[in-house]
Amino acid sequence: MADVLVNIPESAAPGEIIEIKLLISHPMETGFRPLADGTLQPRDIITSVRCLYGGETVLEVDLHPAISANPFLAFHLRVDRSDEIVLEWTDWYGEVQREVRQIEVV
Amino acid sequence: MTKVCTTALVILMAGPAQSDDRRSGFEFMGPTTQSMQTDDMANPGMLAVLAGERLWNEPAGLSEQSCQTCHGDPEGEMRGVAARYPAFDEVAGTAVDISGRVNLCRTRHQRADPLPHENADLLALVTLIGLQSRGLPIQPDPDPRLTEWRARGEAYYETRVGQLNLSCAQCHDENAGGHLGGAPIPEAHPTGYPIYRLEWQAMGSLQRRLRGCFTGVRSEPWPYGSDGYIALEAYLMQRAAGMTMETPAVRP
After folding, report:
1. Which of A1, A3, A24 to mutate: most B Cβ within 10 Å?
2. Which pLDDT does position A2 carry in this prediction?
3. What distance in Å separates the CA atoms of residue B136 and residue B79, rounded to the nearest whole number?
4. Is A3 on the interface with B (CB under 8 A)?
5. Which of B35, B39, B47, B127 to mutate to test the interface with A (most CBs of A within 10 A)?
């Protein structure tokens, strides 16, 4: 489990555009870096990040080896109802990590 | 001889030593890197803080005690500590920086192995301790046993080294604000350590930063943990006395 910082407002007004920020502790090892013995350090990157709002996918991003370590994502979302916001990402080995927050729209 | 004197004079006049126009490396960065540092949600150094908080509560070594067991919450006893280090340790009979101090607690109090320099866990603990001084002025320890360390650090700072034959002062006092290749030359204030350096894509200690400056002038860096670094750290902290701590800083 990677350390992660998630910033989603706890509440918002109907129709408000909120900012969601996600900072994941991850080496984003490119797979191109030679080690002392000439072999390559195996690739270990996050391959995709998804945001779901009430079960509906509102953002889907593919990540590639050129993205720096500890990727930071910030994006906007218009909210119109109280619901669950899920951030989930998949790594090179297919492992999925998930952060769940609830937003109150009043 | 005259040349040496003029150089000394230039350093005296241009040196940021006591005046308020000293500027942290923060001031030399672009606005995007600055906002990365000031937004705790975007500052990757805060990931080290998270890891540090976890480690703070983890029992280690034969003592099976955690930092928390003896020190309580980091917000209490650790406030202002990083702004005061390096300090002199009575038992070890030597000056230590925060990393050295944490390792003393590991070996002496937790009866655990010391963590190697630049180990991610060690950096995380030191970053957590550093954060407890963020916003506070640097207040070097008045212990007279540190005077000699600072004097040695100052001597190193002014000595030309390496194939390029440059001293720290020649870059950081005489040419601060200028450029080296594409990089602005800052005034070398240790206000933000450990830092998250974009070039490293990782956290690093002041010693790692200093090693970079040694290799930059093609001088063989001392091994990690050498007294020379502690002396330089003690001098740099004295030179930055009163400036605001900003751990965890972001640097290019």
Report:
1. A3
2. 78
3. 9
4. yes
5. B47
Q: Return the biggest CA–CA distance within chain A.
A: 60
- Name which of B41, B47, B201 is nearest A3 (Cβ-Cβ): B47
Q: State both tokens at B179.
A: 């450029």
B105: DSSP letter:
I
Give me the residues paired with residue A11 across strands: A104
Distance of CA B190 to the CA centre of its chain: 5
Closest CA to B95 of B247, B225, B249: B225
Mean pLDDT, chain B, as a whole number? 93
Q: List pLDDT tens digits, range B83-121.
A: 999 999 999 999 999 999 999 999 999 999 999 999 999
Task: Express the helix, strand and coil content of chain B in percent, nearest 5 each.
Answer: 45, 10, 45
Q: Kindly tell me the number of DSSP H helices and DSSP E strands found in chain A.
A: 0, 8
Distance from C-alpha of B52 to C-alpha of B168, rounded to nearest angstrom: 32
CATH H-level, domain A3-105: superfamily:
Immunoglobulins (2.60.40.10)
Global pTM reads 0.92
Tell me the pLDDT of chain A (106 aa) as tens digits: 679 999 999 999 999 999 999 999 999 999 999 999 999 999 999 999 999 999 999 999 999 999 999 999 999 999 999 999 999 999 999 999 999 999 999 9
Nearest to B245 by CA among B126, B150, B154, B151: B126
For residue A70, list chain B residues with Cβ-Cβ distance below 8 A: 44, 47, 201
Domain range annotation of chain A: 3-105
Q: What tokens does A77 get?
A: 């979302």
Q: Quick check: helix, strand or coil at residue A90?
A: strand
